[in-house]
């Protein structure tokens, strides 16, 4: 299916507004939309909303043989799925160029910045390592998928737990299991978190007029009228983890430096939000384990209608 | 009566919840949850249709079923076919000839009875989109478990969890339409005697009436706010 | 004289697709096991039609099997009773007309004849523009369907321009045709929409804007001048003196969807003060 065409009226209005520092949704040029992070019952399953943009992540793992050149390192794989659910312009079937570009983007930001300790994913050097798979799904596309996806990937990796593995030694007496890896059921032994070194997050800028005008966290409509984009990935320590520029706009070096300064502030805010949401989630789970949990307060109560499971006579 | 691992009675459904119109881009959407099992559906249409798929006298129904992890495999394509076959009879396809109605289901979490949950979610999303329909669809999954200790009879469980499904000797999913509670879709795996099959239908039909009553309540709530 | 509620007891309540709402035949034909979705078999509807009463079914309703009136979408059942005269001269007799429809809200547009829509020009082909109206098929808009247009004097509209017009042809089997002139060949407010901004809203909100007293437009109009072109295809064009005002109008209209009149007035007041 095709996207709704953009009228010239919308294009010139949104561009004109951007040039005068006005945004159609009433935000300031440096404002992010409201971010909501919802952790689901399964470990590694998180939904992230950025305004109306909505993405979902599921992290999973399996034991595999390591690459021969890196016998003591596990692997982390990213896969972004742009389902037609998110936008009529997304076609089902093979991953589109945009999906591959976003997968690679998340990979650069999270994996290539060494946010995940891959050596700790090693179980037996040269024999068995954990292969972590990060499946990211775009559910609703109202612009700036990259920032939402990066945040979801990170939240999913932090929320995820990998099962504990042990290998009974020959001395244990039971020869039938000796030398075989045992993956312990999560109910049997507490699964372990991944070791996350730092939290790189993305901030996307959209430009008009050769970079003269700029907005942070563009909506789908702003993305459609913008001439170029700059994605800056940073962590709380103000370390730049990735910079990606695309589109036809030519940017001045000073403009990029200005963007990194803005990104540093935004990343600090987002990190705080992410950390707070994770702390709350872990607290909630701890309470639930201790049995003193009130059922998780459901957000968005107004639109959800629930009732008790009925008994069929 | 033996209660189940999660404390339910054998003939008890899990708590249901519906979120209407969750997505901004789709023409209609709905998230349907049976406790932890959850599916999100987006509907587009009646929209333009590729000329290769165009039907002169009715709308083309297209379905997409997306797993939570990994790429769509054979099982997912089977689900796409099932969804299409179950939804086509309740959609008034002749009302919008030469158009497409696309239904995209995203698995949010599978803790058993996923197919029924996907069908329920698709049914609600079609209603949210305002696609003309001849009835509402409500689906239920049932599982037969091997005899418990001290009993010689197999047990029928409604709306099984994944754990119960794994232990089951047979699983059956039915979809019923709302006007005469007729069967629109039936699928069983594993062995069942003829008597067991008819008993399963009878129970599933009653359970589906409960699901439908919940859908109705939820929509009444939604419309009392909006219109 | 029967009231509409007597003919259709479910007026005002939520109905679902497949719900039988009334039976044109007499007698107790409805299956009592049908549950809440079933018809309350009423002989008054039968009597009504027998005595020359007529039924007019609006969107979301259809007659099934020639006798049962069934819903085809979910929404609140609405209706009204009116008088209509049929025939002419000596044969003329007035009868009652029961109008029935389902109030619901959609995003996707299904074209209907004589409805006003806002379209986007996507192409020129031969003697007509191709216009996206948000429906399954594009509409065609003849170069001659503008006020004052002739073979020599063609309207010059760019690709991407917005047009406000009426659907002269719209049915399920044909490509919709749009015109920007009324029966007297006058523009009557139709034609190209220049400047301003376009918002995308549901059909329910659109109908509210088109009602006799659209609360949100009245509230906004007290503060500044504004211009609108409301399309039944879920697209509403808005314009005002400053971009700030346009943004305010866009947000006010979108916010107003599920609000009461009092809430709308308070919301508009708040937005205007923040301007």
Automatic annotation (TrEMBL), chain A:
<dbReference type="InterPro" id="IPR033100">
    <property type="entry name" value="Rrp45"/>
</dbReference>
<dbReference type="GO" id="GO:0071035">
    <property type="term" value="P:nuclear polyadenylation-dependent rRNA catabolic process"/>
</dbReference>
<keyword id="KW-0963">Cytoplasm</keyword>
<dbReference type="InterPro" id="IPR001247">
    <property type="entry name" value="ExoRNase_PH_dom1"/>
</dbReference>
<dbReference type="Pfam" id="PF01138">
    <property type="entry name" value="RNase_PH"/>
</dbReference>
<dbReference type="Pfam" id="PF03725">
    <property type="entry name" value="RNase_PH_C"/>
</dbReference>
<dbReference type="InterPro" id="IPR015847">
    <property type="entry name" value="ExoRNase_PH_dom2"/>
</dbReference>
<dbReference type="GO" id="GO:0000176">
    <property type="term" value="C:nuclear exosome (RNase complex)"/>
</dbReference>
<dbReference type="GO" id="GO:0005730">
    <property type="term" value="C:nucleolus"/>
</dbReference>
<dbReference type="GO" id="GO:0034473">
    <property type="term" value="P:U1 snRNA 3'-end processing"/>
</dbReference>
<keyword id="KW-0694">RNA-binding</keyword>
<dbReference type="InterPro" id="IPR036345">
    <property type="entry name" value="ExoRNase_PH_dom2_sf"/>
</dbReference>
<feature type="domain" description="Exoribonuclease phosphorolytic">
    <location>
        <begin position="198"/>
        <end position="264"/>
    </location>
</feature>
<dbReference type="GO" id="GO:0071038">
    <property type="term" value="P:TRAMP-dependent tRNA surveillance pathway"/>
</dbReference>
<keyword id="KW-0698">rRNA processing</keyword>
TrEMBL record, chain B:
<keyword id="KW-0271">Exosome</keyword>
<protein>
    <submittedName>
        <fullName>Uncharacterized protein</fullName>
    </submittedName>
</protein>
<dbReference type="InterPro" id="IPR050080">
    <property type="entry name" value="RNase_PH"/>
</dbReference>
<dbReference type="GO" id="GO:0034475">
    <property type="term" value="P:U4 snRNA 3'-end processing"/>
</dbReference>
<dbReference type="GO" id="GO:0071028">
    <property type="term" value="P:nuclear mRNA surveillance"/>
</dbReference>
<dbReference type="GO" id="GO:0016075">
    <property type="term" value="P:rRNA catabolic process"/>
</dbReference>
<dbReference type="Pfam" id="PF01138">
    <property type="entry name" value="RNase_PH"/>
</dbReference>
<keyword id="KW-0539">Nucleus</keyword>
<dbReference type="GO" id="GO:0071051">
    <property type="term" value="P:poly(A)-dependent snoRNA 3'-end processing"/>
</dbReference>
<dbReference type="GO" id="GO:0006364">
    <property type="term" value="P:rRNA processing"/>
</dbReference>
<dbReference type="GO" id="GO:0005730">
    <property type="term" value="C:nucleolus"/>
</dbReference>
<dbReference type="InterPro" id="IPR027408">
    <property type="entry name" value="PNPase/RNase_PH_dom_sf"/>
</dbReference>
<dbReference type="GO" id="GO:0000177">
    <property type="term" value="C:cytoplasmic exosome (RNase complex)"/>
</dbReference>
<dbReference type="Pfam" id="PF03725">
    <property type="entry name" value="RNase_PH_C"/>
</dbReference>
<keyword id="KW-0698">rRNA processing</keyword>
From TrEMBL, chain C:
<keyword id="KW-0698">rRNA processing</keyword>
<dbReference type="GO" id="GO:0034475">
    <property type="term" value="P:U4 snRNA 3'-end processing"/>
</dbReference>
<dbReference type="GO" id="GO:0071051">
    <property type="term" value="P:poly(A)-dependent snoRNA 3'-end processing"/>
</dbReference>
<dbReference type="GO" id="GO:0071034">
    <property type="term" value="P:CUT catabolic process"/>
</dbReference>
<dbReference type="Pfam" id="PF21262">
    <property type="entry name" value="RRP40_S1"/>
</dbReference>
<dbReference type="InterPro" id="IPR036612">
    <property type="entry name" value="KH_dom_type_1_sf"/>
</dbReference>
<dbReference type="GO" id="GO:0000177">
    <property type="term" value="C:cytoplasmic exosome (RNase complex)"/>
</dbReference>
<dbReference type="InterPro" id="IPR004088">
    <property type="entry name" value="KH_dom_type_1"/>
</dbReference>
<dbReference type="GO" id="GO:0000467">
    <property type="term" value="P:exonucleolytic trimming to generate mature 3'-end of 5.8S rRNA from tricistronic rRNA transcript (SSU-rRNA, 5.8S rRNA, LSU-rRNA)"/>
</dbReference>
<comment type="similarity">
    <text>Belongs to the RRP40 family.</text>
</comment>
<dbReference type="InterPro" id="IPR012340">
    <property type="entry name" value="NA-bd_OB-fold"/>
</dbReference>
<keyword id="KW-0271">Exosome</keyword>
<protein>
    <recommendedName>
        <fullName>Ribosomal RNA-processing protein 40</fullName>
    </recommendedName>
</protein>
<dbReference type="GO" id="GO:0003723">
    <property type="term" value="F:RNA binding"/>
</dbReference>
<keyword id="KW-0963">Cytoplasm</keyword>
């Amino acid at each position: 299916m095709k996207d709704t065409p953009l009228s010239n009226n919308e294009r010139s209005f949104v561009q004109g507004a951007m040039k005068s520092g006005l945004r159609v949704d009433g935000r300031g040029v440096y404002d992010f939309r409201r971010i909501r992070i919802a952790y689901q019952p399964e470990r590694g399953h998180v939904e992230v909303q950025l305004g109306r943009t909505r993405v979902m992540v599921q992290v999973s793992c399996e034991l595999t043989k390591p690459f021969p050149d890196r016998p003591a390192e596990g692997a982390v794989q990213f896969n972004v799925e742009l389902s037609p659910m998110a936008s009529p312009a997304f076609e089902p079937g093979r991953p589109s160029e945009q999906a591959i570009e976003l997968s690679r983007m998340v990979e650069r930001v999270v994996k290539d910045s060494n946010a995940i300790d891959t050596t700790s994913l090693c179980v037996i050097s040269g024999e068995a390592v954990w292969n972590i798979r990060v499946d990211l799904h775009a559910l609703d596309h109202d612009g700036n998928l990259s920032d939402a996806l990066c945040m979801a990937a990170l939240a999913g990796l932090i929320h995820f737990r990998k099962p504990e593995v042990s290998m009974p030694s020959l001395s244990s007496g039971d020869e039938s299991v000796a030398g075989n890896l045992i993956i312990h059921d999560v109910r049997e032994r507490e699964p372990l978190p991944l070791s996350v070194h730092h939290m790189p997050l993305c901030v996307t800028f959209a430009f008009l007029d050769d970079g003269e005008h700029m907005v942070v966290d563009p909506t789908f409509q702003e993305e459609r009228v913008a001439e170029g984009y700059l994605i800056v990935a940073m962590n709380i320590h103000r370390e730049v983890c990735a910079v990606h520029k695309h589109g036809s706009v030519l940017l001045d070096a000073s403009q990029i430096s200005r963007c990194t300064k803005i990104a540093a502030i935004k990343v600090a805010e987002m990190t705080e939000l992410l950390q707070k949401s994770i702390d709350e989630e872990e607290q909630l789970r701890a309470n639930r384990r201790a049995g003193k949990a009130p059922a998780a307060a459901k957000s968005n109560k107004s639109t959800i209608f629930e009732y008790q499971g009925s008994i069929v006579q | 009566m033996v209660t189940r691992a999660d404390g339910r009675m054998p003939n008890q459904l899990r708590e249901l919840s519906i979120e209407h119109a969750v997505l901004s881009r789709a023409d209609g959407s709905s998230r349907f949850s049976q406790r932890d099992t959850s599916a999100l559906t987006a509907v587009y249409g009646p929209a333009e249709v590729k000329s290769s798929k165009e039907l002169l006298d009715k709308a083309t129904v297209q379905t997409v079923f997306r797993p939570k992890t990994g790429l769509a495999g054979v099982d997912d394509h089977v689900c796409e076919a099932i969804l299409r076959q179950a939804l086509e009879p309740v959609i008034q396809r002749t009302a919008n000839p030469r158009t497409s109605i696309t239904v995209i289901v995203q698995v949010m979490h599978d803790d058993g009875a996923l197919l029924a949950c996907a069908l329920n979610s698709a049914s609600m999303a079609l209603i949210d989109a305002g696609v003309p329909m001849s009835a509402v669809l409500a689906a239920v999954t049932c599982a037969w478990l091997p005899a418990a200790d001290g009993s010689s009879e197999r047990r029928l469980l409604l709306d099984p969890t994944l754990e119960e499904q794994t232990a089951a000797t047979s699983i059956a999913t039915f979809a019923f339409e709302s006007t005469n509670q007729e069967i629109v879709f039936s699928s069983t795996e594993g062995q069942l005697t003829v008597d067991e099959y008819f008993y399963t239908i009878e129970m599933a039909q009653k359970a589906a009436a409960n699901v439908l009553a919940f859908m109705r309540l939820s929509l009444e709530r939604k419309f009392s706010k909006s219109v | 004289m029967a009231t509409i509620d007597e003919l259709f007891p479910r007026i005002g309540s939520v109905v679902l697709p497949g719900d039988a709402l009334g039976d044109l035949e007499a007698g107790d034909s409805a299956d009592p096991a049908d549950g809440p979705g079933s018809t309350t078999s009423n002989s008054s509807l039968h009597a009504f039609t027998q005595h020359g009463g007529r039924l007019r079914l609006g969107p979301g309703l259809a007659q099934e099997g020639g006798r049962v009136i069934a819903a085809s979408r979910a929404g609140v059942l609405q209706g009204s009773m009116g008088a209509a005269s049929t025939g002419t001269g000596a044969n003329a007799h007035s009868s009652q007309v029961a109008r029935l429809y389902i109030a619901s809200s959609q995003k996707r547009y299904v074209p209907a004849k004589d409805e006003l829509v806002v379209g986007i020009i996507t192409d020129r082909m031969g003697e007509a523009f191709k216009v996206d109206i948000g429906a399954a098929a594009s509409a065609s808009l003849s170069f001659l369907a503008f006020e004052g247009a002739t073979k020599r004097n063609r309207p010059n509209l760019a690709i991407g321009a917005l047009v406000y017009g009426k659907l002269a042809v719209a049915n399920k089997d044909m490509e919709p045709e749009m015109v920007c002139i009324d029966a007297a060949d006058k523009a009557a407010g139709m034609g190209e929409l220049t400047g301003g901004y376009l918002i995308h809203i549901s059909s329910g909100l659109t109908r509210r804007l088109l009602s006799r007293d659209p609360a949100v437009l009245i509230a906004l109009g007290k503060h500044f001048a504004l211009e609108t072109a409301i399309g039944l295809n879920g697209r509403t064009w808005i314009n005002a003196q400053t971009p700030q005002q346009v943004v305010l109008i866009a947000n006010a209209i979108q916010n107003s969807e599920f609000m009461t009149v009092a809430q709308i007035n308070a919301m508009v007041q708040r937005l205007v003060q923040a301007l």
